[in-house]
Amino acid sequence: MRDSFGREISYLRLSVTDRCDFRCFYCLPRDYRGFATPEHWLSPSEIKCLISVFAGLGIRHVRLTGGEPLVRKELLEITQRIGEVAGIEEISLSTNASRLRQQASELRKMGVSRLNISLDSLDPSTFEKITGGNLSKVLNGIQAAVDVGFHPLKLNMVVMRGINDHEVEKMVDFCMDQGLTLRFIETMPVGRNGIEANRHFIPLREIETRLRQRYSLQPAAMRGSGPARYFQVGGTGLVIGFITPQSQHFCDTCNRVRLSVEGDLHLCLGKENRISLRDMLREGASGDAIAEAIIAGVRLKPERHSFDQPETHVLRPMSALGG
Ligand code: SAM
Ligand code: SF4
Fold it and tell me: What is the mean pLDDT of residues 67-93?
């Protein structure tokens, strides 16, 4: 399946919930009330149905995301059902890891092969200020993921000036010690909180320059469908990645679409255009009709986001689509 700019779409990010046990200040407003109601959530069997159609169109990798996917009670069943779909070669998951200690082993057994974990600070008080959550639970979750054999395990750090940028080197040391991959992410002006947090934006070139004063960084290849530029930190086993949606956007290689918990197909994180697949499914549309709607939707995929144009910023929080 190709969009009108010739990009092949093989990756689906599936939000299994828009709820979360954290309130990261760049993502989910503390007073947010716009959550989807349970009757609008795609059920595990509806998810399997839609994923089968996507697989028929060439989707090979599904990433489970949220909100926080581990708060969805049916997560294991959803994972299992996606694993049954012919053509899906990989299931990965993004999590804040607060509930990972209890679920890491089952997720692995159900076929999740790769995990990305968000970790913005190693200081309990800064961590609490950024996320509203508890650092030690997250560290326990990371340890559990290592113990059950998730490898490589990627940590994602949103770097923000004046908030956590002083912790970059500490995070490098931590990942080196633990054998984890570290990815730095630029803030994105998505949702009310993302727009506000973008005042702390740092172009990651600054962080790269700072790290080069301490380490030699050699370009490295890394398996995965992501947009990060990776480097091997000289003389160590550590790989670090830079994800630069603002300072060096990577829209020309975008291979993904997104499906919300309500079954809306979104063509771009930074745009509003979407189509409801749930309504079609619940009205009894055939697999072929849904496939046609997806193909027509993919043709409308925008060429690039417009984070540099404040008047077009989307107000849906990042938690609604999972980044
Ligand atoms: N709850 C899971 C987690 O935190 O990993 C999955 C969903 S979360 C929305 C996915 C990713 O989006 C996380 O790595 C998070 O840090 C990132 N994110 C959320 N809001 C962001 C923003 N405004 N700018 C940049 N990254 C953001
Ligand atoms: Fe929750 Fe993830 Fe958003 Fe933080 S970034 S509020 S953990 S969905």
Answer: 98
Of residues 141, 226, 188, 224, the one with CA closest to residue 308: 188
Q: Which residues form the pocket of ligand 2, taking CB atoms under 6 Å from any ligand atom?
A: 20, 22-24, 27-28, 66-68, 96, 118, 131, 318-319
pLDDT at residue 311 in the model: 77
Q: Mention every residue, 6+ apart, whose C-beta is less than 8 A from residue 282.
A: none
pLDDT at residue number 293: 97
Q: Report the separation in Å between the CA atom of 190 and the middle of ligand 2, taken as the mean of its atom positions.
A: 13
**Structural domain boundaries in the chain:** 11-320
pLDDT in tens, 216-229: 999 998 766 578 99
Mutate to test the pocket of ligand 2, among 128, 188, 318, 321 (most ligand atoms within 8 A of CB): 318
Whether domain 11-320 has CATH 3.30.870.10: the reply is no
- What pTM was computed for the model? 0.96
**Strand 153-158 relative to strand 181-185, pairing:** parallel
User: pLDDT tens digit string along 183-206?
Assistant: 999 999 999 999 999 999 999 999
Å from CA of 190 to ligand 1 middle: 10
Helix (H, G, I), strand (E, B) or coil at 290: helix
> What's the distance, CA 226 to chain centroid?
10
Count CB neighbours of 61 within 10 A.
19
Q: Tokens in use for 21?
A: 């046990």
Letter for the amino acid at 305?
H
244-259 per-position pLDDT tens digit: 998 888 788 899 999 9
Cis check for the bond before 124: say yes or no (omega within 30 of 0). no
